[in-house]
Amino acid sequence: MTEQLPEEVRRLVDAVEALIAIEDDAECAEAISAALKYWGDNSPKLREARQERVMSLKSQGKTWQEIGDLMGVHFTRAQQIGNGISGAVRQKKKAQQDAAAKEAAAGEAAEGQSG
Length: 115
Known about the structure:
Helices cover about 80% and strands about 0% of the residues. It has five helices and no strands. Helix 2 (about 25-60) crosses helix 4 (about 75-80) and helix 3 (about 65-70) packs across helix 4.
């Protein structure tokens, strides 16, 4: 990874790489499991903090485009983050829409065969 990362992010990346580099398989698996459990418990805190900071930027008069540029994401994603819409929510919604579209298409195909 050659891009410049904030020091805090660099330390996180280094810690992940150190976990992966543990030579003993059992020790490595145990350490990664502990890290994932901790991460799972704390990822909502990071998402909430990010949302608060994004909304703070918005209240300071920044546009969604400017916020997206700062974060390295599309402006619509910046707006979704500000509104608290996570990637998991977007993926679930898309899966529901896809399933509904398939169901509708299957229904139309069945009607076409019977009529």
